Structures are given as structure tokens and as C-alpha cells.
Amino acid sequence: MLQHMSSIVWLLIHTVEEMGDRVARGRFPFRLSIFFEQTERTGVGSIPLVSLVSFFIGLTMALLTGYQLQTFGQERLVPALVGIAFTRELGPLMTGIMVAARIGAAYTAELGTMTVSEEVEAIEAMGIGPLRFLVSPRVLAVFLLLPCLVVISDVTAMTGAALISRWAFDIPFRSFFDIALENVLIRDIIAGTVKSFLFGLIIGLVSCYKGLSVRGGAAGVGDATTSSVVTSITTVIGFDTLCNIVIVALFDK
Amino acid sequence: MNDAEKTIVELRDVHLAFGDNEILSGVNLAIPERGRVVILGQSGGGKSTMLRLILGILKPTSGGVLFKGHDITGMKRRRLNQMRQRMGMVYQYSALISSLSVRDNLSLPLEELTRKTRAEIDKAVDEKLAMVGMTEARDKMPSELSGGMRKRIGLARGIIMDPQLILYDEPSAGLDPVTSSVINELIISLSDAIGATSIIVTHEMESAFKIATHMAMLFQGRIIASDTPENFKSSTDPVVAQFISGDTIGPINEGTAKP
Ligand SMILES: Nc1ncnc2c1ncn2[C@@H]1O[C@H](COP(=O)(O)OP(=O)(O)O)[C@@H](O)[C@H]1O
Ligand SMILES: [Mg+2]
């Protein structure tokens, strides 16, 4: 476990170093075409899944909490509850899990297959740094696009919650969003954003590391892909908990 | 090898172990410039590993690997990458980038490592494809090619940067006899055409004698013989003699062969 952690940090450092070498020679560190291919896959390609799942989770959350709160006549708390929960916690977490499963698995399988067929080694043997060439555009794509997906997740979740609240608890759209915005603090938004970037980085690094360290042919690629998804998701949840503890300890007294 | 010949690669007492498993235990070998050196050895004997050491992909546990007089074992990555640009590697299973077309596979190192213009790159790609007789495959994907064709593209990629040293890992393994001969002839003509030194790793004797100007035998982690092909043929060393004749009884499989 610790060994993996240090290997992943090692991967990050060496990738940055390779990129630095490249920039020092006056060249762009990676191919923009590969970067845009990955952003398209990671970002645009994940929108349907992320928005669909978030929409239903937001809706369900509003419905369940609303019925509980209604018994105390407090169903007007629903918008604040869903708003805070998503911007600060569920948006980054759910999106992180979905992207780990969808994109992390793809990165690992792709790089793993390339490792097994010696393509990665061939790139290294040519003197083209494989880390800057293969890893940097992928990590950067998921690092930059996860926060965008989180915004989409937050918005669709709120939409789902607003729709059901209007139907079940007679809260008009306009006042749903007004109440939500009144209660979501800048602090929640910052916490959510920081988490999003962090989770993106974790997913990118873990999945690339797992791909590049594949051993043992096709079966090895399968094992690495499974392990990549499991590790990404547990690491994301672990860091989420850590962030929450830090935030609560520092700000929420 | 006479002293007037320059050496381009030198392995000095190279030891390499993966965990407790020592693969190379004191390899000494000097590769003369412009030669075609065939390294013979058993499967799993560490031949590919030796090529990886020369490319600096693996680091020896101890010992030195010199390319043009520079020890690459402790070299910084940036310097090492510059050294690698003067070497070309032809992989046993070609190792073409499967997501790129043949043309993009060949132009990749030129685009990444040189400041050549598009037109110069296209010209170099066409030239190298013509040298291996694969001009018509230019816009194909690697998955559309047969093993022999892929091998030829691998050859073309190996020489795309006009390297001073070309490394071949089992170039004729797994090919039919005719294709295998074609590859052998290509190896000879390519190294002449660009004036490069070649190191060819193989366990196929027929190809070996066709290509070699110099031979070396790797056995139990050491180079036990290094000589001209003629002297190799008439070698009295029991290991070399058994390897060349392909006998099942001899020192190579001592203890495993049934009399
Ligand atoms: N990365 C590695 N990790 C552990 N063992 C390895 C590695 N690469 C090669 N080996 C082992 O080293 C030995 C020599 O391999 P190799 O150089 O590929 O042999 P050859 O090319 O002569 O058939 C084999 O027993 C192989 O299992
Ligand atoms: Mg081999």
C-alpha cells in the first residue's frame, strides 16, 4: 500500500520532470491532439452518465428527506439540504466514482495493453519520454475536466430535486433555487472545487500507474483494470473523508 | 577483433539480477563499429535483457555499459534520451503503436525529436518505407498487416532517425523461411545503406551465419565465446558446438537430457 503510494508520487514527479525537460528545450510538453482526444472522451463523453445519475440521486434525496421533514413542517429545508450536500460532498464524490469507473478503467486498459505489447518500451527506447507523451495528457485531461463534470452534476441534481419538490411539496422552481443559493456558502463551493481537482488528479495518476505497471499479458491487463477502479474509488473516498475532517476541524466549529 | 577497429558499444563486467534471479553474471563484450554482431544464446538466457541494458531501459546491478565511450548507466534522463536517438531498436513482436497508422508510427520520432518540416518528414517516411519495400502500406493500421509486414515496418521505424546503432531482437523468429530470408537480406542492406552498426540477437543458426560479421555466445550469464563466424563454425568449445549443431546431448542441457 505504502509502496504503491510512493510509486504514484514518483510517477507524478517524473512526469513533471519529463515535461520540464521538454519545455526547457522549447517544445510543448505533449501533443495537443492527444490531449483533446482525452478531454473529449473524459469530459464530453461522461456528461450523459454523470447528469443522468446525478439527476436521479438529487431527485431521490429531495423526495426522501422531504417526506421526513414534512412531518415537522420543515420541507422548505429541502433546497438548502440538497444544495449543500451536492456542492460540497456528493457532486465531487459521485462524479469521482463514475469517472474512475468509466475513464480510469479505460486509461488502465489502454496503457496496460500498450505496456504488454512493448509499445511503451518502444516509445522509451526511441528517446521520447513515455511519461510526458502518454501520461501527462491523460492526467491533465481528467484533472481539468473532473471539476467541470462536478458542476454539471451539481446542476442536474438540483434540477432533479427542484422538479420533485414542486410536485411533492409545492415549492416553486424559482424559490427552490433562491433558497438553495441563499444557503450554499462560498466555503462549500471552494471545498467542492478543491475536492474535484484532487479527485481528478488521483484518478488520473492511479489509472496511469496501474496501466504502466501491468505484468503478465492479457490477464494482467484485466487484473490491473479491476485493481485500478477499486484503488481509485477507495482512494477518492479516503481523501474525501480526510478533506471533510480537515474542513470541519478548521472552519465548521 | 583487431585493435584498429573502434568499439561503439562496450559491456564491462555487467551483472544483472531480477530479485534473487541473476540473469547476467559478468558480461564482457565489445561491439566493433560498422560490424554486424550476432549474439547467440538460449531462450530465456538474457539476450533481450542485454539489448535493454544497451538502450538504458534497464540498469545493471553492477558494471558499465558504454555507448561511444560514454557510460550510460548513471546518465541523466535527458542525456540518455539523446543517446537513444542515435540507436534504433527493432522489437521481436514489432511493438508498433497500434493506435497510429504506419505513416504516423514512422513519423512519430521525427515529429517528437526533430525540428524537421512536414515535407521533410514525409520524404523521410517514404524513403524508409521504400527501403523495406512497404510503400503501399503507408496508410494502413498495424492491425491490418501480417507478421512479416509488421516486422518490416518495425525495421523501417528502427532506422527512421538514421541511427548509428541498430538493435534487432530475434528478427526472423516466427516467420516463414522465405520472409525470414528477406528480413535477413534487409538487415544486411539497411546497415550498409545507413552505415550503421548492427547487433542482432537470435537463436536461429542459419540466419546468424548469413548476417554475421562477428559472433558472440551468451551462456549462463556470460559471454563464453566471441569470434568470427568461420571460427565459430569450427569451434571446439562444447557449448558452442552443441548450440550450432542443435544436439540434444551436451553441456547446454546437462542433467536434463535423457541419454
Ligand atoms: N522485467 C523482468 N522482471 C523479472 N524477470 C525478468 C524481466 N525481464 C526478463 N526477466 C527474466 O529474465 C530472463 C531472461 O529474459 P530475456 O532477456 O527476455 O531472455 P531471451 O531474450 O534470451 O529469451 C527470463 O528468465 C525472464 O523471465
Ligand atoms: Mg527475447
Written account of the structure:
- The complex is a heterodimer of chains A (253) and B (259).
- Chain A is built from nine helices and no strands.
- Chain A has helices at residues 2-24, 32-42, 47-70, 78-116, 119-125, 130-169, 173-183, 186-212, 217-251.
- The mean pLDDT of chain A is 93.
- Chain B is of the alpha/beta class.
- Chain B contains nine helices and ten strands.
- In chain B, the strands form two sheets. Chain B has a six-stranded mixed beta sheet, with helices on both faces.
- In chain B, helix 3 (102-113) crosses helix 4 and helix 5 packs parallel to helix 6 (177-194).
- The model of chain B has no long low-confidence stretch (mean pLDDT 90).
- Chains A and B meet through helix 1 and helix 5 of A and helix 2 and helix 3 of B.
- Bound molecules: adenosine-5'-diphosphate and magnesium ion (MG).
- The site of adenosine-5'-diphosphate has 10 residues of chain B, from helix 1.
* Structural class assignment of chain A: mainly alpha
- Could you say which overall geometry of chain A the principal axes of the C-alpha atoms support? elongated
Major sheet size, sense and barrel closure of chain A: none
Q: What series of H and E elements makes up the topology of chain A?
A: HHHHHHHHH
CATH C-level category of the largest domain in chain B: Alpha Beta
Strand proportion of chain A, as a percent range, falls in under 5%
Spans where pLDDT lies below 50 across 5 or more residues of chain B: none
Termini separation of chain B? 38 Å
